[in-house]
Amino acid sequence: VAPLEPDQCKLLVDSARSISEEVWACFDGEPFALEPSEQAMVPATWSGGWVGNGPPAEFLAVQPQNVPQDNRIKILPGVCSGKDMDFMLCVYNDTSEPLDVDLGDLL
Predict the structure, then answer these.
(1) pLDDT digits (tens, 9 = 90+) for 11-67
(2) What is the mean pLDDT of the segment spanning 60-89?
(3) 58: part of which helix (H) or strand (E)?
(4) Angle 38-22-87 (CA atoms, 0-180°, nearest 5)?
(5) In whole angstroms, how far apart are CA 23 and each of 10, 64, 106?
(6) Secondary structure of residue 39 in the 3-state scheme
(7) What are phi and psi of 29, to 5 degrees?
(8) What is the pTM of this model?
(9) Is 26 in contact with 105 (CB distance < 8 Å)?
């Protein structure tokens, strides 16, 4: 295994920091493939940390802007309850290839 280049290390550190400090939705179900142009309702759970006093009563779940979007499933924006750690999200595949969705994947 080759060592990481400095720019790869920085990207890895930045990504790890973002995941640990921000709130993310993670897939929490059986692995499956989402076909091109297909949508699905999938089980998810929150990961990461809520800053301050915890989650707001309600908030809008949207596609994260600070992660690469190529070959990732996308989420449709939706209102979530801050009381629920486990919930359902609507996701879609806007690529021309099937996308594998595995337990723990960031949505």
Answers:
(1) 888 777 666 667 788 899 999 999 999 999 999 988 766 666 677 788 888 887 766
(2) 81
(3) strand 58-61
(4) 45
(5) 21, 10, 10
(6) strand
(7) -155, -170
(8) 0.72
(9) yes
